[in-house]
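User: Structure please.
Assistant: Input sequence and predicted structure:
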Amino acid sequence: MSEFPMPHLHLSQANSQKAFNIIEQCQIKQAWQSIGAQINLIGSLKMGLLAKHRDIDFHIYTPKLDVAQSFAAMAQIAKNPKIVHVKYRNLLNEEDSCLEWHAWYRDEEEWQIDMIHIVQGSKYAGYFEKQAERILAVMSEQQKETILKLKFEIPDNVKIAGIEIYQGVIEGGVRNFEELQQWRVNHPQNGIVKWIPNSL
């Protein structure tokens, strides 16, 4: 029998449903598709690993990056009165080579929606989609439970990337916060965590 506290699982499922409702309310997919973009859900929501951090992640692809078109898609999303703040960064001259959008949705709670606009065929195109697919393919139910338990138990003032937790649990056999802390000491990460699990 699993020792995983079911309220955590139920809360994760409830938060995921809220997230999908927000995506629909804000017509996020439709806004990007209106400029001919392909939009892919990635991150914790995609993998069923959304916990207490209310964020939604997308990667968006077009054959070329047109700043005006990117703004046009975001203008449609920002029409929703519950979108209370939008942040934009032009990273075309950086390693990421993308346009980075962050929108904050506020209702009873505040959610952050991250939308990374990338040119098709660039360095990171498809990388995080593949990463999510591989994690879903190799992650056992017990590992999923452990990951969610950790995500809910990690103190709010401790910043640990989700991918570090996934790697620690799936590859390192981490079972609790103390073991996760030791794993991070032994496997320090800087910048983007480039890890895709092998078949286990």
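Residues 6-25 form the longest helix (20 residues).
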